[in-house]
Every structure is written in structure tokens, then in C-alpha cells.
Amino acid sequence: MEFWWASFIVALLFVASNVLIFTVFKGKRELCRRTVFFCCIFILAYKVIYYTYMQIIGMGWTKFPVEYSALTYFLFTIVVLTRCEKLMPFAIFSAIVAGIAYNFSFIFSVNSFLPPDEPIFEYVFAWLNHSLLYFCGMLLLLYVYPLNKKLWWEIPVGVAVFAGYAAIMQNTVLKGLEMDTTIIYSIATGSLISYVNPALEGKWYFYIWYYPLLIGLLSGVALLMFKINTAKKYIPQPQEEGEICEKTAEGERAEERPIAEEEETSPTAAETDLEDKKEEETASEQPTEE
């Protein structure tokens, strides 16, 4: 592997980002929230400027957001900045998957990235933006947002929408252009396997195990994401908050009840004085012993 040094650097940086996530940012919800907010502003601003500039210089459809990660840049940043919690599960899922896929692809297949066909800064910023997606997605998952399990369905629906969009673009406006097939389209059609074993491409028995494996893998990642999020006790879960409030209210009522009972059963000062006088009168009426 000619560019092993680049693969080694990216691997070290990926490990370093996880060290930061699980040490420096652990349990610091407000710090995580602010960090993600500013990272999202940077990603969104950079991508808007980048795609606008590419259209100005006439790059056309060759520089248009079609890939899964390219769509995730806009989905994730807009969802976070607008605090659209209903789309948060799919946004976090997409950010983490895009970041992991890019970093691992670079580490284990660095020769497909280098030497660069385009200016080196584009590859540097591509790595930076994918890594920020992963970094921010993990911070939200671990320390900030309690995910609603009832919204699990939006992950498979969202993936299907992204894949459908890529398929439409690949077979319409991108058809005939001198550019590689989009990765998401290659994964959806199974043509990506040609890089591993070209003999399997197009074989009917290949799809019998390929699609169940792909669906199972994505489902496993989504299930693990919800499990991790629920397991983090310092993220206030909605159901836990309700239980805590009910328990607190019951405790307060239980504490108030004995006090009220004591107030009802305890004699007043006037009643106590009256009883003392009666006792004195009774004692004075009794004959004394000589």
C-alpha cells in the first residue's frame, strides 16, 4: 500500500476523536450542545459556498449533492440548527454512518483516494467534514438528545428515500457524464461487489444473501444506536422524567400527610389551658388528708 502513511494518520485521528468524545466531552451536555452547534454552522456554510462556487464556474451536475454523505451534510446541520427533534434519529444515524464509512474506507482502501485527481484541499475538507459528522453525531447520541423509539421507522424510510433519489439522479441527469457511479447507488444495486469479486456481479444467487445482509447490517446499527442512547442515564429520558415527577409528588404528599394529621389531632393552646384549670379545680375540691 503506497500511501500507508496517510491511512495511518487518518486512523490515529479517528482514534483521537473517539478519545475526546469519551473523555473530554463525557457527560458535559451544554459543552456538547455548543460544540455541535458551531460545527454545524461551519459544515453548512462551507457546503453552501462550495456548491454555489462549483455552479458558478460551470461544473454543473458533476458537482451536485447526490451521495449519501452529501445529502447528510444538509439534513444533519439543518435538523440540528432548527432543533427538529422529530427528524433527529435519522439525522444522527446518517451522520454516524457517513463518518464511519468514509474513515474506514480511507483507512483500508487509501489507494482509491490517493493520489488525488483533484486539489488536495478537497480531500482534506472531505475527510474533515465526514469526521465532524461522526463527531457531532456521537456527541448528540451519547450526551444530548433522548431519542424517541417510536420514530425508528424514519431510519429505513430515510435510507430508502436517499437511495431512491440517488438512483433517479444516476439514471437521468448524471447518465452519460464522465464520472464514477455514486457510492450509494453502487451499494443499493450491489454493483459495489464488483470491486471485491467481479464474478458475483449480476448473479441471481448473489442478491439472495446480499440484500438481507445489507438490511440486517443497517438495522443492527440503528438498534445499537437506540440501545446506547437509552443506556446513558445522564440523558434525561422523557419517560424517566415523568416517573421522577410522579414519585416526587407522591413523596411530597406523603410528607405533608403526617403533618396535617398531627395538626388535626394535636390540642390547641386554649384547649390545653382549659384542661389545666379543670385539673386545678378538681384538685382543690378533693379533701386533704390530716
Mean pLDDT, as a whole number? 80
Q: Name the helix and strand elements from N-terminus to C-terminus, one letter apiece.
A: HHHHHHHHHH
Tell me about the largest β-sheet.
none
Please state the overall shape, judged from the principal axes of the Cα atoms: globular
Structural class by helix and strand composition: mainly alpha
Beta-strand portion reads: under 5%
Computed over alpha carbons, the radius of gyration is: 32 Å
The first-to-last residue Cα distance is: 122 Å
Low-confidence stretches: 239-266
Number of strands: 0
What's the helical proportion of residues?
A: over 70%
Count up the helices. Answer: 10
Structure in words:
The structure is a single chain. This protein is mostly helical. The chain has ten helices and no strands. The protein has helices spanning 4-24, 29-56, 68-82, 88-108, 120-144, 154-170, 183-189, 204-231, 238-265, 269-285. α1 (4-24) packs antiparallel against α4 (88-108) and α2 (29-56) crosses α3. The longest helix is centred in the first third of the chain and has 28 residues, at 29-56. The chain is globular. The chain starts with a helix and ends in a 5-residue tail after the last helix.
How is this fold's topology laid out?
Layout: H1 4-24, H2 29-56, H3 68-82, H4 88-108, H5 120-144, H6 154-170, H7 183-189, H8 204-231, H9 238-265, H10 269-285
Helix pairs in contact: 1-4, 1-5, 2-3, 2-5, 3-4, 4-5, 4-6
